[in-house]
Amino acid sequence: MKDLDCVLGQEQAVRQLKNALQNKVISHAYLFLGPEGVGKRLTAFSFAAALNCQNPLNGYKPCGKCPACKKIEHDNYPDLHILEPQGQSIKIEQIREMQGKISYKKLEGKYQIVILEDAQKMTVGAANSLLKILEEPPQGTVFILIADNSRLMLPTIISRCQLIRFVALRSEYISRILEYNYGIGKEDAEQISLLSGGSVSQGLQIKESWGENSNWRLPNRILNLVFSGDICDLLRLSGEIEKDPNLTVVLTSLIAWFRDGVVWIKTRSVKLLNATSVDTEKFKPLEEGQENKGEQAIILLNQALRSLKQNANTRLTLDVLFLKLCFLFNPK
Ligand SMILES: [Zn+2]
Fold first, then answer.
1. pTM of the full predicted structure?
2. If you measure from the C-alpha of residue 285 to the centroid of ligand 1, how many angstroms do you get, rounded to a whole number?
3. Domains, the chain, with CATH or none
4. What separation in Å is there between the alpha carbon of 69 and the centre of ligand 1?
């Protein structure tokens, strides 16, 4: 059974929750805030299981044997309610339905748990309705709001939750998770982790974009061509990949790489990089010349991503991007 010790790379968040469990000081609402794909959902379910286990080890490790543990593991625990967006948003009807369910007495557990996934996607109506519930929280109910962006949430909701922050994962953790939880080969897992921007879900998308042929490591190939100033090959590549359904993943992973490059040049601290086993020699081209080339490359990549989102001509967008990147690193 999964428990808080299975959550990798989120020491602070896990410590806060273990303390709460061991000291039996449980808030009625938590906001799990942090980037996508870093373990918020796994943490929420592990926490929920620990709250309801009849005999948790060390106060936080669900025993895996009691009825509550068994039912949670098999997804049929009557006091665990999960809300996720229907279509684009979490709607007021969903909040009302959940309110109806939790107004009954607890069926068996110590706590009723409500997990709201993508809580930032609540409609205004849904958010106001939830706020009313949080203002007079029903006894023995714990709300866990999961979100990757708090700017879209009502401040009045945030202020009623205990904030648990989740951070982008270091590449060694991404690599380990990809290898052991998703069966990706060690070498591939390491390569992907360097481009994942600290997110397992981004890493999985990169893997998908590679398809069966993992030698086709597009982001690295693009970087090599850009730095060597090979315009002809870049334009040829642009034609090759314009129909790639994972193009935005490729560009996003390049942003992650340049982000690490900028941080490395400014701080010389490997600790601050998302990609921990990165070869920092590769950041050298970013240091040449006066202007900050890494930051400019990120701006160019973001512009291209925005254009693609607005349905601009893909080939043209890629050509322009590659040319600009090429001139940025090979000024004549
Ligand atoms: Zn148990």
1. 0.72
2. 55
3. 4-165 (3.40.50.300), 171-329 (no CATH)
4. 4
